[in-house]
Amino acid sequence: MADEDGKRKLLVENKLRLQILEEQRARFGYSTPAEILTEIDHIKAETERLQRELGHTTTDQQPSPSASEHPGSGKNGPSTTNSTANFYAPVGAVHSGSGDIYINNSSNQADSALPITKLRRVVSTQAPPELRQASLRKVADLEDAVRTGDQEEFDAALGWLSRRIPSLAGAIEECRRWFGNRGA
Q1: Does residue 85 lie within any of the structural domains?
Q2: pLDDT per residue as tens digits for the range 150-168
Q3: 74 located within any domain
Q4: What value does the CA radius of gyration of the chain take, rounded to a whole number of Å?
Q5: Which of 6, 77, 115, 168 could cross-link 72 (Cys pair, CB 3.0–4.6 Å)?
Q6: pLDDT for 19-62, tens place per residue?
Q7: How far apart, in whole angstroms, are the C-alpha atoms of residue 182 and residue 151?
Q8: Is the residue at 76 inside a domain?
Q9: Does residue 156 lie within any of the structural domains?
Q10: Count of domains in the chain?
């Protein structure tokens, strides 16, 4: 039983780590470092193995809840389809029901895309090969700082980039101006 509890705990930890890595992969896009992709594959394989050992039938589903956990579904009530999802981080706006879903970015996120996207593009093309991956991670730090409003993290990431890659000065200054004008 203790072994099964350990496997369940490891399964939850794997899912949390996988979510973080998937977010990083989304941020990096085609420039995702190989170590992130490799770790994603490793965690997926490990998750499949743990689910098999715990008796789960598929890798994408948790065991189905019993009818008693969903009143109104089952033998005595109307038949419905229930979906379950586990979230391991804060969840923003949620849509329930049916119909088309239109997603509009908040003004801060939409505005941030331009200077930071431009900086990412410039880093991808102008950063020396030995600094490229570390520089792209700093751009990801900038995105995190924008999301959290952390001025110190934002300044630290820009400072790191400007000290190591002076040719980024124009794109860095554009990001600085944009971040400074956000609160105005």
Answers
A1: no
A2: 889 999 999 999 999 888 8
A3: no
A4: 22
A5: 77
A6: 888 888 888 888 888 888 999 999 999 999 988 988 864 444 44
A7: 11
A8: no
A9: yes
A10: 2
